[in-house]
Structures are given as C-alpha cells and as structure tokens.
Design brief:
Layout lengths: L2 H30 L4 H20 L5 H11 L3 H29 L5
Helix pairs in contact: 1-2, 1-4, 2-4, 3-4
C-alpha cells in the first residue's frame, strides 16, 4: 500500500476515533454529573469535530504552511496531497459525528 494512502486512512480513523471516543467519554462524564448523556454526547461531538481534524493531520499551522510554500514554489503535488489528507480527516470526523447523532437518536433518520 502506498505511503499516501496509508497516511490518508490513518488520518481518517484518528479523526473518527477522537470524535467517537470524546463523545462516549463525555457521555460517561454526563452520567456521573447527573446530566442528560445524549445531549452532552451530541454537544461534545459537534464541538470536538474541528479539533479532531486538526489533531489527525498533526496540527493546524503545519499543513497550511506546507500548502502555502509548495504552491508559491510552483510544486502542486505536495499541496494537493495535504489537501487530500485534510479531506480524509474531515470525512473521518464527520462520520464520527454522524455516528454519534445516529446512536443518540436511537437509529431514527
């Protein structure tokens, strides 16, 4: 498997795991503090989504710096790869959020 594809898959699952794990642990914290766990899980999943994306790609500034420096130098291939890594991580975070919504909604729509 190519290095690019394996990193993209890893970014996807890291972002997915951060959202899903954060929401689940947040739900446990809500139960301990006598708050409604489903609403807490939904709130946490929505709030943590962007941070999961940033954590999966290794920070918020570095990928943007790679894109900027390569585009300015006329080197588009590394910039496109970074954008695809960001898209992969976004899809993972989004799917994690949607899974939490589905589970908290009891499987309805």
């Amino acid at each position: 498997m190519s290095t690019f594809l394996s990193k993209a898959i890893l970014d996807f699952f890291i972002a997915f795991g951060i959202v899903l794990g954060g929401a689940m642990i947040g739900g446990i914290g809500a139960v301990v503090s006598l708050q409604p766990p489903t609403q807490t899980m939904l709130d946490v999943a929505g709030k943590i989504k962007i941070w999961a994306l940033a954590a999966a790609v290794g920070g918020t500034i570095d990928p943007m710096r790679v894109i900027e420096s390569n585009v300015l130098d006329g080197n588009l291939s590394p910039a496109v790869k970074q954008i695809l890594y960001l898209i992969s991580a976004f899809l993972g975070a989004h799917m994690g959020t949607e899974l939490v919504k589905w589970v908290c909604g009891g499987g309805r729509g």
